[in-house]
Design a protein that fits this description.
The chain has three helices and no strands. It is mostly helical. The chain has a domain of 65 residues. Helix 2 packs antiparallel against helix 3. The longest helix is centred in the middle third of the chain and has 35 residues.
Length: 95
């Protein structure tokens, strides 16, 4: 048998756990997922560009500067992709 009153610490923690959680809106979920995607885009696009450039040099004997060029092109494409993604999420042009 418990002698705790309505002002005890245990009852207040139970009341707070009974409150419904606020559901996230679709826009908030999209923004969270975009934040996860941004570092991946910045890392992977130039890496893929460099790898493709390296393979062209190795197997087709193209000039040695091709991997550097394709890596820079991958970085430019990553920046364009992030800019496009931010315009879709926020609905305005970020400058």
């Amino acid at each position: 048998m418990s002698t705790e009153g309505p002002n005890s610490d245990h009852s207040s923690s139970e009341d707070s756990s009974r409150l419904p959680r606020r559901k996230k809106r679709l826009g908030e979920l999209v923004r969270e997922r975009a934040l996860y995607a941004a570092p991946t885009i910045i890392i992977v696009y130039p890496l893929v560009g460099f790898t493709l450039g390296y393979l062209t040099v190795r197997f087709w004997h193209w000039p040695f500067w091709v991997p550097i060029l394709t890596m820079v092109m991958g970085l430019v494409q990553a920046i364009r992709e992030l800019h496009s993604l931010s315009r879709k999420i926020y609905g305005k042009d970020i400058e």
